[in-house]
Amino acid sequence: MHLKVVIFALSFVTISAYPLQRNTREATWNHSKANQVHDKTDFSKDVDNLYKSHLDSSSLYKQEDDDDNKNPVAVEMQHKLNLESERLRSRLRQELAELQDRLSTSPAQLSSTLASMRERLAPLTQHLQSSLSTNTQDLCGQLSLYLQGLETADVQTEASPARYQETVHWMTQALEHSSSKLADIISDFHTKTVGVIEHLTEILADEEEAARLMSSRFGQEVSLLRVETQNRVGALKAEFAALPETARPLKAEVTASVEMFCEKAALQNQVFQVRLEKLFQGLEEELEDQRASSLSPSPASSSQQPGGSLQEDFSAKLSALIKDILHSV
Predict the structure, then answer these.
(1) What's the pLDDT tens digit per position in 125-161?
(2) Where is the composition biased (Low complexity) (predicted)?
């Protein structure tokens, strides 16, 4: 009896010290899962990689199948389209390159070109200036000698009307001879000037317009100089021809006419040099204005000169290119 009591007491003490848990099986499962080693890789990444690999493989096989199943007509058409596209691309590049070349000339380059032309033409203009001055001095000196001879004869003995007429005749001959020499000098200057400008045109291919305009302006100045020289000589010859043949002409009138002629000749030489300087300045301004107007033409100028401006020229070429593209497509 006492033994049973002791066993019961020991059992009660044991149960009180270690009570039973209700979720023993769940705790055991969680504990084992927490200590279990498993793969930490994100499942979504594996799915993406697999999908991408599938796409790459499918596109590869699909490309191979397309290459095998391509129609020869389609292949030929694609080849023709590629050739036509390259041709149109090359043509557009060429048009743009030409436009860039036409726009590349800056005012600084234009000034440099004109300065080069002026430097090449300077020896010719200086030689012309010197020749004109020498010719004028020789002619006026010769006319003065004739007048001095007539005055000497008049002082020594009373000169006859025939002596006056003879002197006027020799003075007229001197005028004609000087006028002929001047014409040769001016013609030689013009010929050499044209040669220099043509040579510059070959060197400066981009400045053909400037060279052409300069040649035209120089031609105008030379023609004006020739006309002025002929008119001056012709006016003095007309005065000599108007002198009476029978009566002795007034020596003072002849002397005054010769002096005025020589003054005008010397002044004309100086004016010609000034006109050449202004020619270069006006030429540069005119070329700049022309290029500015060609880049932004007014409606009036566009209607008067169709296709003459840079904008219209490029627009026409671009329209033709677009039509060609549409026709090719």
Answers:
(1) 889 989 999 999 999 999 999 888 777 766 555 656 7
(2) 292-310
How far, in Å, are 64, 87, 257, 321 from residue 264 at the CA level? 96, 67, 11, 62
Tell me the C-alpha distance between 120 and 190, whole Å.
Answer: 14
Report the C-alpha gap between 279 and 289 in whole angstroms: 15
What is the sign, positive or negative, of the torsion defined by CA atoms of 4, 9, 12, 13? negative
160: left (phi over 0), alpha (psi -120 to 50) or beta: beta
The most distant pair of C-alpha atoms in the chain lies apart, rounded to whole Å, by 204
Domain ranges of the chain: 119-293+308-323
Per-residue HEC secondary structure of 158-169 comes to CCCHHHHHHHHH
Burial environment of residue 175 by CB neighbours within 10 A (0 to 12, 13 to 18, 19 or more): buried
DSSP 193-262: HHHHHHHHHHH-GGGHHHHHHHHHHHHHHHHHHHHHHHHHHHHHHHHHHTS-SSSPPPHHHHHHHHHHHH
The residue with tokens 């540069």 is 284
**C-alpha pair distances (Å), 305 with each of 72, 294, 295:** 52, 11, 14
Distance (Å, whole) CA 324 – CA 77: 18
Residue 213 burial class via C-beta count within 10 angstroms: exposed 0-12, middle 13-18, buried 19 and up: middle
Answer whether 302's CB lies under 8 Å from 312's CB.
yes
DSSP assignment string, 168-183: HHHHHHHHHHHHHHHH
Which burial class, exposed, middle or buried, applies to 108 when counting CB atoms under 10 A from its CB (0-12, 13-18, 19+)? exposed
What pLDDT does 184 receive? 93
